[in-house]
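Posted in: Structural Biology > Protein-Ligand Complexes

Title: Requesting predicted complex, iron/sulfur cluster in pocket

I'd be grateful if someone could produce the 3D structure tokens for the following input. Sequence and ligand are given below.
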Amino acid sequence: MNSKQTAAIRKILNEWYLINKRTLPWRETKDPYKIWISEIILQQTRVNQGLDYYNRFIERFPDVKSLAEAGEDEVLKYWQGLGYYSRARNLHKAAKQIMNKYNGAFPTVYHEVLSLSGVGEYTAAAVCSLAYHQPYAVVDGNVYRVLSRLTGSSTPIDTSVGKKEFSAVAQQLLFITSPDVHNQAMMDFGALQCTPANPDCEICVLQDFCEAYKLNIVGQLPVKQGKTNVKNRYFNYFFIKNDDYTYLKKRTGKDIWQNLYEFPLIETDKEMNFQELTETESFRQLFGETELTVQKISHPVKHILSHRIINAVFYKINISDENETIKDFEKLLLSELNQFPVSRLTELYLEKG
Ligand code: SF4
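-- Reply #1 --
Done. Output follows.
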């Protein structure tokens, strides 16, 4: 793209945005905290779904201080159902960093923002450009798509070469006198006009500048190098009822759903029925000599995560000895269950009953 083309594209994008922009609460503010929260929520979440979470989150944690002072369980509870829980843990960690290192004032320098837990180049650029008008171009999935089509580049966007190439194009294209409007225009243009499937190129205001359109390769761009290997896992959960009590434990260790709570679990390397489960060492370790009766077995559920398919079965179990304990599990009132952050899988199971 030469300088004449980039100037024309900026102008057209800017005009397009003024007519087509989405009205969203985080666009009405220059508060870096709120912009940061919205950007983290929207990283893996559609705008419609993220909006409710954003409003609830900001209402409960309106600033860095309130977030830093909250307990992690409560932060995770507000995140429940959004997935990618490391985002919430990192938000909480970063709020504490801001309190300790910057006396609670959100950092204003790009590299300081980038140093916060869970903040990558995209988020740092978004916060600095949207809150402080600093000249950093954002490159999210929408922007990758628009740029790869405009330039007709088939460099895979999920490679370090692709990241470098498209970041450079985005930075070249950035309208530095209004980086906030320009960045939002790029993202909205990708979300609303240059959509992943079947964009309506015939009405596109950038048609004259679009290499992919000229070469008739719109459907082939952007290119991605490879799909992630998806692994199947088999979770057998035990929702135990002991009078008015049940048992729960926090998931620790570096795995999915870290720091969320769950029922006693036996993970197996293949599907097993209840009889087969009772014959495993894990079952003996979990229940020992405890007398239990199976009240209900759920239908098998396939819960799809980005790199995993969780094949889950929930066993509703009754234990009649009220003094019974389950090793390593907390015994709590059934009525308290909804206070604990749990995975979407468990939440859905509990909703269905
Ligand atoms: S012409 Fe089509 S592919 Fe090119 S920028 Fe416009 S919508 Fe995207």
